[in-house]
Amino acid sequence: xxxxxxxxxxxxxxxxxxxxxxxxxxxxxxxxxxxxxxxxxxxxxxxxxxxxxxxxxxxxxxxxxxxxxxxxxxxxxxxxxxxxxxxxxxxxxxxxxxxxxxxxxxxxxxxxxxxxxxxxxxxxxxxxxxxxxxxxxxxxxxxxxxxxxxxxxxxxxxxxxxxxxxxxxxxxxxxxxxxxxxxxxxxxxxxxx
Length: 193
What we know:
Layout: H1 8-41, H2 55-79, H3 83-113, H4 125-156, H5 166-192
């Protein structure tokens, strides 16, 4: 398919999707670098062995997976021109995203209660990686929540329809990426922790 063909609207849509995928690729490279450094550092003498992640991180995983499901339901409703139902699903997705972040901070609190810190005399390299990687993911979830608010706002203003779904498609793609990224990270920490 020739990418230079089509209407201006189609060209702009392709350009926006391409930019999103470039952004996702760069984020993947960043997280791949951090998880690779985690593996390399695990051979250090001061590396924590047999560490268990707090249960809050598992609960947050369930929440973010559910949020991807509610976003899918929102997209289906909007595509069926049921904007009000789409709005309800988008609000639920937003709520689940906020709950995800709250539970993540609960996980950080559990780590601190166990005596593990990001930095300082009582910290160690293992915990520093876990805090860093999880915190950077949270920052990106906040970006995802901002994009979700834009989608929600535009949906309330009836900007989307079965023929105009670009904003929803971009938002849901980024949200699913964040979901899959967290699932990868939690599995990574369990298998390489």
